[in-house]
Amino acid sequence: MRLPRGIYGITDTSYTVKSHVEAARAFLEGGVRIVQYRRKEGSIRVMLEEAREIRRLCNEYGAVFIVDDRVDIAILSDADGVHVGLDDAPVDAIRSRFGGLVIGASASTVEEAVQGKNAGANYIGAGSVFPSRLSAVGGFATGCFSTVSLEPLTVVARQRSPAVHSPTGLGTPGVQLRALELSL
After folding, report:
1. What are the mean pLDDT values of the chain's consecutive 10-residue runs (184 residues total)?
2. CA nearest 183: which of 104, 108, 90?
3. CATH number 3.30.450.20 given to 7-179
4. This prediction's pTM
């Protein structure tokens, strides 16, 4: 599956304005074509219920649905993919068992990005280019939200595959958006 270019919306428990489902709906109504469900804690049943509802919304809007960290929730909710951090299930293990999933890998260095690419990731989630509200409350997949320069991201993006995205800090209170402008 080729990922659409543009804005990548990520739901998060830290948002005070919207629930995960309502944040996903707002993203989709605003034209976002990739939505990531990101819930770090809570009941698996609640996660699965929310993920299935977001899946339904993504189907309705023709958007890609990604689950953060949880391969089990991704599979059980029929998500298009999963995004994993360095301490989560290894990309190559997910690829060998669930080859059809879109797999994103977090990276805070060029070396980690190349490692994710070589393991079979479809895209790389890099550290934040600009400070964001989300960075202050916990981080993105790896827990690493220090800002990075565009130069290392460009090095990886120039390798043509996989796509690279970075948190931008765009959005309004309660809504975090990430740009995929380095996708090739």
Report:
1. 84 80 94 94 96 98 97 98 95 96 90 90 76 40 41 57 50 42 34
2. 104
3. no
4. 0.78
